[in-house]
Design goal:
transmembrane helix, NAD, Rossmann fold, transmembrane, elongated, 15 helices, 2 domains, six-stranded parallel beta sheet, binds nicotinamide-adenine-dinucleotide, about 425 residues, alpha/beta, NAD binding, oxidoreductase activity, acting on the CH-CH group of donors, NAD or NADP as acceptor, five-stranded parallel beta sheet
Length: about 425
């Protein structure tokens, strides 16, 4: 007989991986039921036990208010739980192939704690099939239990947007799925208890996996189109933003903007699907073309700034450039896969002396991840060019004249994000 699913009132949750996705989820569940947050990083666990969150997604008050929530780095404590939600990273390796090491390791951890009737739900972004082809065999091996008879599995992708105060976990419709109709209903009810926006129950785990990965691919490809247009309009001596503003007056013109595409989602997830496509001998031309275009935007920004410097009859090798912003997006400290580093690298290849300033970002992390020493307080009047790379509010609120204070007389101001008036800057994407 199939093992019965946990009863709603006897659900003891564990969240495995307490990052941008896992922590808000742990807090939401911890407000209403016993929830154990587990992470392999003891420093992360200690900081959360002190009610501090360095990702800034959750406030100390919200952490305190989650009365049912406890944190641990000890996997032994997971055996008290009966529902495990896995929210560990799914990065790519140096060859842009899915690196499933964290997911496999978290599955081993969950597998060792698994008992008859338990449920494991995956939230990490993967390709269709990964949960059942990669994770389930590990769960079976570690637990000695049989899938869909002794234990159940679900998949519910996360859609949060770090730094976004409007679209929060609770206010975004959640896609849910399960390995059997009963498991799907269980997973759906579990999330309905915290998601005020409601849920969408997908017909299978693979459908839910596919839905998540294509959400990000759709954005990536659309941004790539606009980036390609930006490269072309630059050659034609036209301002891309002006063209987009004009085209945007049509009701069905999509409002994508050119820019650097960084972060651990949009620039990474497409490779999960293209990997799966390769496995079945399918060539994903459009998706990979989009990736290529987007990955070329950092060097393009640097070359445009160099051109502007040369037009002033200066030589980039004798110039000091200030890059404002290193995080992969505005108003958040997340550095993962930031493509601002491509701008810096290309400028340095021209011999420019480049400083990077980002008050949101942890300086040690910038050094550790990218070997970049952040400048805490750039000197006023010191730079030949200033690049607004990330539109943090505190940069944008200075306006062009405030930003120009860091520059020498006649310094170049380049606006990667197109947030300043055209007339106040020397160039923009
Ligand atoms: N951050 C986002 O905006 C976002 C949005 C939607 C989906 N996702 C997806 O969610 C997943 C998690 O992303 P994230 O941004 O929260 O990652 P993250 O890097 O912020 O956090 C992951 C946490 O997992 C921990 N961890 C790693 N391996 C572990 C293991 N074996 N056992 C326990 N803990 C482990 C790490 O120490 C870290 O604290 C990824 O698949 C990502 O693509 C992220």
């Amino acid at each position: 007989m199939n093992a019965p699913l946990p009863h709603r009132d006897s659900t003891r949750l564990a969240i495995i991986g307490l990052g941008y996705v896992g922590l808000p989820l742990a807090v939401a569940f911890g407000r209403q039921r016993p929830t154990l947050g587990f992470d392999i990083n003891p420093a992360r666990v200690s900081e959360l036990q002190r009610h501090e969150d360095q990702t800034l997604e959750v406030t100390p008050d919200q952490l305190r208010a989650a009365a049912g929530l406890a944190f641990t780095a000890d996997p032994e404590r997971l055996s008290d739980c009966n529902v495990f939600i896995v929210t560990v990273p799914t990065p790519i390796d140096a060859y842009k192939r899915p690196d499933l090491t964290p997911l496999e390791s978290a599955s081993r951890t969950a597998g060792r704690a698994l008992k008859r009737g338990d449920v494991v739900v995956y939230e990490s972004t993967v390709y269709p099939g990964a949960t059942e082809e990669v994770c389930v065999p590990i769960l079976e091996r570690e637990s000695g239990l049989v899938f869909n008879r002794d234990f159940h599995v679900g998949y519910s992708p996360e859609r949060i947007n770090p730094g976004d105060r409007e679209h929060r976990l609770e206010t975004i419709t959640k896609v849910t799925s399960g390995s059997s109709p009963a498991a799907a209903d269980f997973v759906d009810a579990l999330y309905k208890s915290i998601i005020t926006a409601g849920t969408h129950q997908a017909s299978s785990i693979r459908v839910a996996e596919g839905a998540k990965v294509i959400e990000n691919i759709q954005r990536d490809v659309n941004i790539a189109l606009v980036n390609e247009l930006a490269l072309l309009f630059d050659r034609l001596g036209m301002d891309t933003q002006e063209v987009l503003a004009a085209a945007g007056t049509k009701w069905n013109f999509l409002p994508f903007r050119p820019g650097l595409v960084g972060g651990h989602c949009i620039g990474v997830d497409p490779y999960y699907l293209t990997h799966k496509a390769q496995q079945v001998g399918f060539h994903t031309d459009v998706i990979l073309a989009g990736r290529r275009t987007n990955d070329g935007m950092g060097p393009h920004v640097a070359r445009r700034v160099v051109r502007l410097i040369q037009q002033r009859e200066a030589h980039p090798a004798h110039c000091r450039v200030l890059v404002l912003g290193l995080a992969f997006k505005e108003n958040c400290p997340d550095l993962r896969n930031t493509r601002v580093v491509d701008v810096v690298e290309e400028l340095r290849a021209y011999g420019a002396d480049v400083d990077v300033h980002d008050p949101w970002v942890d300086a040690d992390q910038a050094m550790h991840e990218y070997g970049l020493r952040l400048v805490d307080a750039p000197e006023a009047g010191d730079y030949d060019a200033i690049i607004l790379a990330v539109a943090h509010d505190r940069f944008v609120s200075l306006g062009a004249s405030g930003l120009r204070r860091w520059g020498r007389e006649g310094a170049t101001l380049f606006d990667v994000k197109g947030v300043l008036p055209r007339a106040d800057v020397d160039g923009r994407l």
